[in-house]
Specification:
Blueprint: E1 5-9, E2 17-20, E3 30-38, E4 45-51, E5 59-65, E6 68-73, E7 76-81, E8 90-97, E9 102-107, E10 110-111, E11 115-116, E12 128-131, E13 150-158, H1 164-171, E14 188-191, E15 194-198
Antiparallel strand pairs: 1-13, 1-15, 2-12, 2-14, 3-8, 3-13, 4-5, 4-12, 5-6, 6-7, 8-9, 9-10, 9-11
């Protein structure tokens, strides 16, 4: 249970990552991904990378610069422009629905304008899931100048699109529905220079 804990990625740039395991029985028609990050990086960095053998950017949450987040599904992406952070923790949730091809993005409990992405697509189930690196091949092929440096916490992945109430609940760290990946029961393996520490109160 990683309650009130964080992963600290100590080096910049870095070859370190955290590998996550989720038991997926079938391809995803919908998902919601939430996580909290704390960094002063101005260069591009990967927060969450979900790759299959067929597609290295099956799901990717990427931050090319401080005022932009990119959500990739099946190799295509949409960009959400955000105000430059005030140097605190940023909580993001990204949701996607195959039937409508609607991607939604929430930052610190507030929704951004929804965008269209990969209508009718299905996200493959056999995945390598990494925090802190972007995969260019299945489980590898990293560009260390896209690595994450800083602190990550509260990582969740659901196989549904969360309701607005639940998106806000994720931001406030309230009770959440069962997830494929849940911070309080995370199956993870640290590779390289990543340390689990108690979260500093803001």
């Amino acid at each position: 249970d990683l309650y009130r804990k964080v992963f600290v990625f100590r080096k910049d740039p870095s070859d370190a990552f955290v590998q996550l395991r989720a038991s997926l029985e079938q391809p995803l028609q919908n998902f919601t991904l939430c996580l909290r990050s704390y960094t002063d990086l101005a260069r591009p960095h990967s927060l969450f990378s979900y790759a299959t053998k067929a597609q290295d950017n099956e799901i990717l949450l990427f931050k090319p610069k401080p005022t932009e987040y990119r959500l990739y599904v099946g190799g295509k992406f949409v960009t959400f422009r955000v105000p430059e952070g005030g140097g605190g923790w940023e909580h993001v949730c990204a949701g996607w629905e195959s039937a409508t091809g609607i991607a939604q993005f929430w930052l610190n409990g507030k929704p951004w304008p929804r965008k269209g992405l990969q209508r009718g697509y299905a996200v493959g189930a056999e995945a390598a899931i990494l925090l802190g690196q972007e995969q260019d091949t299945f489980g590898g092929g990293f560009d260390f100048y896209n690595s994450f440096s800083g602190e990550l916490a509260d990582v969740y992945l659901w196989d549904t699109e969360l309701s607005p109430d639940k998106m806000r609940a994720a931001y406030l760290s309230l009770r959440l529905p069962p997830a494929l990946l849940a911070w309080k029961s995370l199956n993870y393996q640290v590779k390289g220079d990543v340390v689990v520490k108690t979260r500093l109160r803001e």
